[in-house]
Amino acid sequence: MSNSRKFFVIGNWKMNVNKAKIDSIVKIMSSASLDPNTEAVVGCPSCYLTYARQELPSEISVAAQNCYKVSRGNFSGEISPEMIQECGGDWVIIGHPERRTIFGERDDFIQEKMAHAQEAGIKVIACVCETQEDRQQNLTEEVLQSQMASLASAITDWSRVVLAFEALWASNTGVLATPAQVQEVLSMMRRWLRDNVSDKVANSTRILYAGSVSSSNCQHLAMLPDLDGFLVGSAALKSDIVDIINSRRSYVSQIIDSSTSQMSTMTL
């Protein structure tokens, strides 16, 4: 577990909210005691970016769920990084697995969006994903490294990028990835950064996990040495998000309690 990389949790609302639902989530997050050592972000539909920014506590940042590769033009239905920032958004999610698989966004297109987002100065949660077919055919490393290489070629400022890995075979499928499976992939990703970018980037870049993260499994996953947080889907729509944001604090508290107990035993 790294002490230098601040824990990061983004709750991605996807297309599951309206103003009433946002109000409900804001009430949950505003009334809870959230770990100040966790950077908390919500992924909001573009039409509600301004509303979410107005309603949420200032310490919770807002991200758009997607953006286009240029600042303006005749691109009906798209939104630019500049527009996101003007609506109060600090972050944008790029290359989300649903964009890759449902909407057919290819690596080269995602690369172009990443390049413009960096140019615009917005912070990015950059996603890579593994499908069930990738895992069954033992292509996990090959597929993820290809996606990472495409992203990395467009990144000029790694301090404004968080990476997120999603195991699609463990997302709303009833199958949960084991901590060992998650750590294996995150370790590979960090090793790739070390070998292909730099030691500094490998040591400082936060890597998140996505894949049916909930109150029941977040604390165990939070102990993984190469995990720096979560990209959360359905659990972000309910009170689970509080437990997930606080999952690292709970683990640290357990360590402190255990150490205190051991010291007390030693002095008896």
Please explain how this structure is put together:
This protein is 44% helix and 16% strand. The chain is built from twelve helices and eight strands. By secondary structure, the protein is of the alpha/beta class. Strand 1, helix 1 (19-31) and strand 2 (38-44) form a beta-alpha-beta unit. Strands 7-6-5-4-3-2-1-8 form an eight-stranded parallel beta sheet.
Summarize the structure.
With 268 residues, this protein is an alpha/beta fold. Helices cover 44% and strands 16% of the residues.
Mean pLDDT: 92
Sketch the major β-sheet: 8 strands, parallel
Which regions contain 5 or more consecutive residues with pLDDT less than 50?
Answer: 253-266
Overall 3D form: globular
Strand content: 15-25%
Q: In total, how many beta strands?
A: 8
Order of helices and strands: EHEHEHEHHEHHEHHEHEHH
**Radius of gyration, in angstroms, nearest whole number:** 19 Å
What separation lies between the terminal Cα atoms?
31 Å
Structural class: alpha/beta
Question: What's the helical proportion of residues?
Answer: 40-55%
Strands in their spatial order, largest beta sheet: 7-6-5-4-3-2-1-8
Number of helices: 12
